[in-house]
What we know:
Elements: E1 3-7, E2 10-13, E3 18-25, E4 33-39, E5 45-51, E6 57-59, E7 67-72, E8 77-82, E9 91-98, E10 113-114, E11 118-123
Amino acid sequence: QVQLVESGGGSVQAGGSLRLSCAASGFTVSSRCMGWLRQAPGKGREGLALIDGYGSTSYRDSLKGRFTISRDNTKNILYLQMNNLKPEDTALYYCATSNYCVGGWTSVYAMNDRGNGTLVTISS
């Protein structure tokens, strides 16, 4: 059974950094397409980044240079390193997975297996 549990969210000031973690069970992170999405209050889901089984990454253009997706195959954990955070980054962040990556980062929208999320709040 696929299970994803996010952690690492919190409240930081603008300009700060956070690293989100997504602990996976029921499968290995290196064998599936993995990604991150977020949902800000009152807004729709927003895809952020994706990493495929080969370790290739893809990002939403507006986030390139600030967010980095990675994984630790030995710990079976997916990460999202977020730097230079802005108040507009405030959202519930959650990880997702699917058997295959189809296309680039927008594939995250089709991922049906998702965690419950971790809340990130950025103050100005």
